[in-house]
Design brief:
By secondary structure, the protein is α+β, with helices and mostly antiparallel strands. Helix content is 49%, strand content 15%. The chain has a 7-stranded mixed sheet with strand order 5-6-2-1-3-4-7.
Length: 384
């Protein structure tokens, strides 16, 4: 069995490969095959899969360290990796009949998930009929299965949000991922037309991560009764914070050798550079510290968390991402014209984190409003 420390070390060993393939992956608009295979061999995608399915059954503290480490190599590939890990956790919340069949001959599945319940679903005798189009299917080029969200209309109450799982061959895709950042994630649109999904390949979104979910009832580890939203928040925020971490370190190294224009001294001798580096380092400590505090609290409280805890966790991950974006912008501002060559990784980091921060979960105004409402004893407004 691979320990947490060993898995983190394996992640560290893959960082140079991710950095080496980052430009190629951005150009091809999909993850590099060599990186996917290295992550498979290192068992990175097994992190949250239960031992009964051949996985490592490691917890959120390991997820955090692995995600932040991978993010130092490339934001896009770290994003794909952390979501592939999280989506295996999601699949392990489905009914056991499906889990057992899915993991019979493997210890992980590469599964994009389009979580917004935009699909149309209706009940048949043998399962659900599913139709619709979904955006943001991160990791589609290497997909083996797909998770799609849909609202089941009910006559006696509000719609019941569901996740449904389908094999790749039952899903179409449209090449829509033409973006200015996070290009290598392959987050295309997916289309599902009149597919029948057996009941055992569905799970209630509201039950997921609580004691009522199939995963929590069958897997004893606390990980499987952890709320989904903070896991999603961590998966999405680690690439930004990891890129800020490597950006500040690269800045520290480069000002030590880069000469002032027309002079002989290095930029490290300038008071303004020293001051800026000190500020950037403290800003980074704050961003990373937010993720560490969220991880610690989620592991302590799990599904016993109050709405105040839950809204604070998501507001914290959103704040960490916005801090990371500001850090990278300041590093770019202080790094001179050379940082804007396409060969310099900083320009990609800035574009990637700008794009990443536009994810709906990082709408900082909404996240802070929800947190503030719970502090005042009011219900949060948003789904998160």
């Amino acid at each position: 069995m691979v320990s947490a420390a060993e898995l983190i070390q394996r992640a560290r060993s893959i960082v140079p490969l991710m950095a080496e393939h980052a430009a190629e992956a951005e150009r091809d608009r999909k993850p590099a095959n060599a990186v996917i295979e290295a992550l498979r061999e290192a068992r990175i995608f097994d992190l949250m899969v239960p031992k009964v399915h051949g996985g490592l059954e490691l917890d959120l503290d390991t997820f955090l360290e692995v995600g932040l480490t991978l993010a130092e190599g490339d934001a896009s590939m770290a994003w794909v990796s952390t979501f592939y890990i999280e989506h295996n956790w999601m699949l392990c919340q489905f009914p056991m009949e499906f889990q057992t069949a899915l993991y019979r001959d493997r210890s992980h599945v590469l599964a994009p998930a389009s979580l917004a319940p935009t699909g149309h679903v209706e009940v048949l005798a043998e399962g659900y009929r599913l139709n619709g189009r979904w955006q943001w299917a991160t990791g589609w080029p290497h997909a083996e299965w797909v998770i799609a969200g849909a609202n089941l209309e009910q006559t006696d109450g509000p719609p019941r949000p569901l996740f449904l799982a389908l094999p790749r061959e039952e899903v179409e895709f449209e090449d829509t991922w033409w973006t200015d950042g996070m290009k290598a994630t392959g987050s295309h649109d997916i289309i599902i037309r009149d597919r029948t999904v057996p009941f055992e390949r569905s799970v209630s979104i509201l039950a997921m991560g609580s004691q009522d979910s199939p995963g929590a009832q069958h897997h004893s580890a606390p990980l499987y009764r952890t709320p989904m939203t903070p896991i999603l928040g961590l998966a999405a925020s680690m690439p930004a914070v990891g890129q800020a971490r490597v950006g500040v370190e690269r800045f520290r190294q480069e000002v030590g050798v880069r000469k002032t224009y027309g002079g002989r001294r290095t930029q490290a001798s300038r008071t303004s550079i020293q001051t800026r580096l000190g500020k950037l380092t403290l800003d980074l400590d704050e961003a990373e510290g937010l993720l560490r505090k969220v991880t610690e609290e989620v592991m302590a409280l799990r599904d016993q968390a109050t709405p105040e805890h839950r809204t604070r966790w998501i507001a914290s991950t959103a704040t960490a991402v916005h801090k990371s974006r500001a850090i990278l912008a300041e590093v770019a501002e202080a790094s001179g014209a050379s940082a804007h060559f396409e060969s310099h990784p900083l320009q990609r980091a800035v574009r990637d984190v700008n794009t990443l921060s536009a994810h709906t979960i990082f709408d900082l105004d909404q996240r802070l409003e929800d947190y503030g409402r719970t502090l005042l004893g009011l219900e949060p407004k948003s789904l998160f």
